[in-house]
Amino acid sequence: MKRILITGASSGIGMHLALSYLAAGWHVIACGRSLSKLQDALLSTHSELTLCTFDINQRTEVINQLKQVKSLDLAILNAGTCEYMDTVVPFDSALFKRVIDTNVAGTGYCLEGVLDNIKQGGQLAIVSSSVTLLPLTRSEAYGASKAALDYLTRTLAIDLGPKGIAVSLIRPGFVDTALTQKNTFSMPGIISGDQACRYIMRGLEKRKLEINFPKVFLLIMKLLSLLPNTLWRRLAIKMIRTAE
Question: Quick one: which of 14, 17, 20 has its CA closest to 33?
Fold first, then answer.
């Protein structure tokens, strides 16, 4: 039986992945900060489900918990947070630090705990975001954190390749989760958690280096990213003024 570890499994994409891999016959180690939330979200009595709790911002706690999880075929580092900056003057450095600490440093803690326990021939996946394709308003903290994960994942793919571990960068568009339900702006191309899960599982089965979805939304984002920076900046500012 294959073994998978998923962080951020108590809601959103992580929850859908945990349930789907259980249904596919995997042993799932589902990680989250709250045991009660994990139990409510998942089939906590399932014989092939192990629940693992830690606060991703607590380095020692994360590493100690994850080092106990042995012989993994796949690890999906999905836990993260999203906070937007409503204004950049004054700059909210406390918000910036919260997002960077959770999304970047927290992922680093998970890597320290889990990498030694991925089998040769196994896989590692890190969930980033399509926000990294374009500089978007209010995304100074969130976008910077996800851009860091893009770079981190691509370098890990180089360094872990000789060790026989495949690394995938997952970059979703808008997915209907508890985090995105807080958004007060239009979310073009938004898809369900189940749809996102199917994209991710298909991509991981093929051991893809990058898993980008949904296709139409990502194509539009990539085309816009080809515009000269000065032109995109003018368009982005115009969109802000229109929204106001």
Answer: 14
Structural domain that includes position 205: 3-243
188 burial (CB, 10 Å; 0-12 / 13-18 / 19+) is: exposed
Q: What is the CATH number of the domain that holds 148?
A: 3.40.50.720
Q: Return the bridge partners of 210, or none.
A: 169
Domain count, the chain: 1
Does 104 have pLDDT greater than 60?
Answer: yes
* Rounded Cα–Cα distance for residues 17 and 156 (Å): 22
The β-bridge partners of 5 are: 29, 75
Listed in sequence order, the residues at least 6 apart from 172 whose beta carbon sits closer than 8 Å to its beta carbon are 13, 127, 129, 130, 196, 199, 213
What pLDDT is stored for residue 25 in this prediction? 95
Q: Is the dihedral of CA 31, 35, 38, 42 positive or negative?
A: positive
Tally the residues of the chain. Answer: 244
Q: What is the mean pLDDT of the chain?
A: 91
pLDDT tens digit sequence for 202-217? 999 999 999 999 888 8
